Amino acid sequence: MTTSQERKLIKELKEGSQEAFTELYSFYAPKVISFCLRWTKNQTISDDITQETFLRLWNSHSQIRQTDSIKSLLFTIASRSLINEFHKTVNSPIFEQYISHLDDLSTSGTFDPLEYSNFVSSLNKFIDTMPESRSAIVRLSKFEGYSNKEIAEILRLKEQTIKNQLSLALKQLREFIKNSTTILIFLFITQIVF
Amino acid sequence: MKKVIKRYLNNSIKPEDIEQLRSLSDEDVAEYMRRDWENSLPVAVPMKSESLWKKVFLRTAIIIIPLLIVSTIIFWNRSNTLANQDVVVTTGPNGERASVTLPDGSTVELNSNSRLSYSPQGFLGDSRDLTLDGEGFFSVVKKEGKRFVVHSVLVDVEVTGTSFDLLTRSKENCASIYLESGEVEILANGTGQHLAMTPGQLAVFDAQSRNFVISNDDKPNNIAAWRIGECSFVNRPLSEVAKTLSSNYGILVSCSSQELNNIPFTGTLPTDNLQEAISILTISLSLKSNIQESYVTLSK
C-alpha cells in the first residue's frame, strides 16, 4: 500500500467508511498478528489483541487525524495489552520450562522447537490423561510453581505422597515418549528431575 | 540487554536470560517493542482473513452489522484482484539476506540471489504452498492437517517436520536439501520420484541423471553456514568452492584450466565481500585472479 493510497483510506475511515476500514484491516492485520506472536509466543492471545486493537480503531475512527500513520496508531493502541501479555508470558513457570526445552534441544544437536502454544497444549493433553489427583499435583507443581510442602497442605496429603506421585508421573511421561515422536515431553522430564 | 530481547524474539534464549527478561520495566519493553515494530517488514499485499473478520464485527453494535454486510460484498467484488496476488521476496547478490515471517508463524531465512513467493490467501487453506528459486532455511510451525510444501523447478519438498535448508537454482541442474530436524518428503518434478528424509541427511538431486544421492553428513559446516555470513570448506575441490561463490555472488567464478579444479581448499570465506573471498582463496592457494564485472577467473 502506498502512502497516498493510505491517506485516501484514512480520509474515508474518518468519515465512517467501513470499506476503508476493511481494506486497512486486510492490509495490517497479518502484520499485527505476527508482531504479537513474536512478543507473546501465543497464537490465541495474538488473535485477541489484534481483534481488540482493530475494534478500538474502528470505535475511535472519527477522532483519527488525517496526518496520523495507521502503522503508529495500531502500535499505540496495542502496546498496553501487548506489554501486559509479554510480562505474563515471561513470568509464567511453563515458559521457564519451554526455555529449558529449547536449551536442551540446541545442546543435543537436533533443533525441532515446538512453537510455545503447541508445547503448552501438548503438555496439557498429556497431563489430562493422568488420574485426577496426580494431574492436580503435577499442575500445582509445574504450572503454578508450588513446593511439595505447599501442595501437601493444599491437597491434605502427606509430603511423601506428593513426591511419590510426581515420580510416578515422571515414569508415565517416559512411557509416553517411547510411543510418541514429540521430543518436548522428554525435556519436561529433565525439568521434573531436580 | 538488547541481545536478550533479540534472542527472546528468535526463540533462542537461554535459561540465564529469564531473570533479565522478568526485570524489564514497562518503559523498557515499550521502547524495544516500538523499535521492533518500526523495523518489521511490511506485508506487501492485503490478506483475506475471514474468521477474524467475523469475530471483530460480532462484537460491535448490532446496528453496524447490517450495513457491514452490504459493504463487504462491494469490497470483495472490487478488490478481488488485489487479494489474489502473491507475496514475493527477492534478495540480491553479495550476501544479501532476508528474513520472512509467514502468516502461520513459520519463518524463512532467504540467502542471497533468491526468490521466494507465496499466496497469503492460500496459507489460510489446507495447504501452505511456497515457491523457491535459490536457497532458504525454513523453520516450519507444525499445524495438524495443514501441509507445508515448497515448490521449486526440480523438486517439491513437503514438510512433516520442522527445519531444513533447501538449495535450488533454476540455472543449475541440481537441487540440494539438508534436513536439520523433523521429516520432509521430496517429490522430484517430472519423474515422480519420492524420497523421505531423516535428520542429518543431505540429499542432492541431479536433473541430468535424474537421481537422488543421499549422504549422512558428518559435519555439515558449509550447509546453512551462510546464515551467519560465511561459508566454510573442509578439503573441498576448488571447482566446488568456485561454484558456491558463483551462486552466492551471482557472477561466474571459474578456474582457467582443468588441473586447478581438484586443488583442495580448507578455509572460511565471507558471503558479503567478493574481493575478500577471492583474495583469501588466491593467497592461500598461491593463485592469481582476474576479477571482471561479471566473471572471475582463477589461474596459476
Largest Cβ-defined interface: A-B, 52 and 55 residues
Radius of gyration of chain B: 23 Å
Please report which band the strand proportion of chain A falls in: under 5%, 5-15%, 15-25%, 25-35%, 35-45% or over 45%.
under 5%
Question: How would you state the average pLDDT of chain B, rounded?
Answer: 74
| Portion of residues within helices of chain A | over 70%
Give the topology string of chain A: H per helix, E per strand. Answer: HHHHHHHHHH
- How many DSSP helices of chain A? 10
- Average pLDDT over all residues of chain A: 79
How would a textbook summarize the main sheet of chain A? none
State the end-to-end CA separation of chain B. Answer: 50 Å
Oligomerization status of the protein chains? heterodimer
Gross morphology of chain B is globular
What does the model show?
The complex is a heterodimer of chains A (194) and B (300). With 194 residues, chain A is mainly α. The model of chain A is unreliable at 177-194 (pLDDT under 50). Chain A is built from ten helices and no strands. Chain B is of the alpha+beta class and 300 residues long. Helices cover 29% and strands 34% of the residues of chain B. Chain B has eight helices and 18 strands. Chain B has helices at 2-9, 17-22, 26-39, 50-59, 64-83, 120-123, 238-249, 274-285; strands spanning 87-90, 98-101, 107-110, 115-118, 127-139, 147-151, 155-159, 163-168, 174-181, 184-188, 194-197, 201-206, 211-216, 230-237, 252-255, 264-270, 288-291, 295-299. Residues 43-52 and 60-83 of chain B have low confidence and may be disordered. The interface between A and B is large, with 52 and 55 residues.
